[in-house]
Design goal:
Biased composition (Pro residues): 263-282
Distance between the termini: 68 Å
Order of helices and strands: HHEEEEEEHEHEHH
Radius of gyration: 44 Å
Number of domains: 2
Transmembrane segments: 16-34, 104-122, 229-246
Organism: Streptosporangium vulgare
Structural class: alpha/beta
Number of helices: 6
Subcellular location: Cell membrane; Membrane
Largest sheet: 5 strands, mixed, barrel
Number of strands: 8
Region (Disordered): 255-299
Strand content: 15-25%
């Protein structure tokens, strides 16, 4: 009868040692991938709840959330703000490569100068690109009088936060990033940090660019939660498959070791009768002829 050590000795063979190493590497990898997805879920869920709350919050004066030369904190992103002043049409800029309604166009950014002499950049909306790359789009002029702007506060754009690579040599009046610091260097007045994405203004403009859509809050990282659970389920699959392979191999080895020498392999044909001649029957002596002549016996 084979002992337990004899049956499971195969676990120390090179082929099985390689399998053990693979399983031991896969399990912590799946653990880390699951933890990363759960972290993304928490991050996106927190961001989703914060953005939803900011979009629904009552409007506040833009000066309460940012200052000249300052920045917009992550906590205040998409907060609804109010700004009152006059548009500086001479400093208006077009932001290239902005997609809306599946078409490429421009954002129209116009500084709004407040009563205290500071300005705030206002993204008045989107216009479709011209017929050629060099053609200027048709841009509605900003209102000439004093207006009150209601909009969503956005941080200043950088290459890192936007994924857009800035470059020089663009046509006059065109930019790639709404970077408050870079734009402010060209202006005679100070700019508040960040920019305002126009929702509405009072009095309303007779003609205006297409408004920028409300940000899509999304599902709050629901897919990341599903992926995290999936990675951790893979851990159970890996361990269960590894154990199943070991049990099958051990069962096969036990069956082979328990078989008696000369016995047919499991599932083989049953032994049948031996072929070949059987035991010889004793010869029957011939009877002598009636005459008793020896010649008859030789015949």
């Amino acid at each position: 009868m084979p002992t337990l050590d004899d049956v499971y000795r195969f676990l120390l063979t090179p082929r099985w040692l390689a399998l053990h190493v693979v399983v031991l590497l896969v399990i912590p990898a799946f653990v880390l991938l699951g933890q990363w997805q759960f972290g993304r879920f928490e991050e996106r869920s927190t961001s989703s709840h914060r953005i939803t709350g900011n979009l629904q919050a009552a409007p506040v004066a833009v000066e309460e959330l940012t200052s000249p030369g300052g920045t917009v904190s992550t906590q205040d992103k998409y907060r609804t703000v109010l700004a009152k002043g006059r548009y500086d049409a001479s400093a208006q800029l077009l932001v290239r490569r902005r997609v809306q309604d599946k078409a490429v166009g421009f954002y129209v950014v116009t500084p709004l100068v407040t009563a205290n002499g500071t300005g705030v950049l206002v993204n008045r909306g989107w216009v479709k690109a011209g017929s050629t790359a060099d053609a200027l789009p048709e841009v509605p002029a900003p209102s000439s009088g004093e207006v009150t702007v209601t909009g969503r506060l956005r941080p200043s754009e950088t290459e890192e936060t936007s994924g857009i690579r800035d470059r020089a040599g663009l046509p006059a009046g065109q930019i790639l990033l709404i970077n408050t610091e870079a734009i402010g260097r060209r202006l005679p007045y100070k700019l508040l940090g960040g920019h305002v994405e126009l929702i509405e203004q009072s009095p309303a403009a007779a003609d205006a660019p297409a408004p920028v859509p409300t940000p899509d809050v999304g599902e709050g990282g629901g897919l990341n939660l599903a992926y995290g659970v999936q990675w951790w389920l893979f851990i159970g699959v890996a361990i269960g498959g590894w154990a199943l392979l070991i049990r099958r191999e051990a069962a096969d080895l036990r069956a082979a070791a328990s078989a008696a020498p000369g016995d047919p392999a499991p599932g083989g044909p049953e032994p049948g009768p031996r072929e070949g001649p059987g035991p010889r029957e004793p010869a029957t002596p011939e009877k002598p002829s009636a005459s008793g002549d020896p010649a008859d016996l030789r015949a």
